Amino acid sequence: MQIAFFGAKPWEKEFLTTAIKNQIPDNEPVFYDEILDKDHLPEQKDFEVISVFVDSTVDATVIDDFPNLKLITARSTGYDNVDLNKCKEKNIAVATVPSYGEETVAEYAFALILSLSRKVSKSFDQIRETGSFNLEGMSGFDLQGKTLGVVGTGKIGRNVIRIAKGFEMNVIASDNFPNEEAAKTLGFSYYPLNELLAKSDIVTLHVPYLKETHHLINEQTLDQMKLGAYLINTSRGPVVETEALVKALKNGQLAGAGLDVLEEEGIIKDELDFIVSGHPEEHNLRAALANHVLIDMPNVIITPHNAFNTREALQRILQTTVDNIKAFQSGAPTNLAK
Do 177 and 125 share a domain, yes or no? Predict the structure, then answer.
């Protein structure tokens, strides 16, 4: 099969070349440094398989540009950057990577928790900026005995619970589809969201971004949180209403927040394009400005959507991608988008 990978880094090319040679020989992959979208189409059109990351946009125009296309492999869990309806219309399969970072993201959530609980970032900034070893204002708090509220008990959420148990934390959870077997095995209890918010010293979010979870954490739910609690978000930015979060942090309802995702992080990443292209709709502009307020708050830690980003997790993405291609070639496709 003719296989093309778009937006692959040098080390990814090396990994993929070796994996394909070992698993599906007689298939010579072609690599493009650029992403794939309607403005970045390759001259070669005879690919049967194309592989893209989330920064590519595989819309109808792109799909029609490859007359022999049979399979699109998304090197990600999500696939909203692929026109699934067009693929169904043309009988093109779409495969994804449903699981690769459940341990990775869970560990990162605790990196944010510990950075807040022990004021690691503040301590580091003080040393770097002033050279002072003064401990005034650096007192943190122990995790042992604190209550952690885990919103979403999928694979990542359950790994968070396992880690929390190692810190001897009390764990409660909320999920529309409770996993009672996991609750029994790991030793936690399910509560309605409003009760979880009221009981938790720290709330960590591990839900997918769906219509139902848009602004799941909003002004009303933030008011339900325990006074002085902390919020951790390593899921998706729009799960939290940014303006409401800023308000809760300013008025002391929340003591702090650790955020690996922002509601309008695309604008934050590329402000030059934001300026050149003009303002987005008013809501997006307000969220973007509120993001900037968050960045300057001393009780907020923001990182650049980095929770998934370990070499091991990225290798699992690539290996699953090769496995998906091999399975499709053998006539038994796996991990297909629905």
Answer: yes
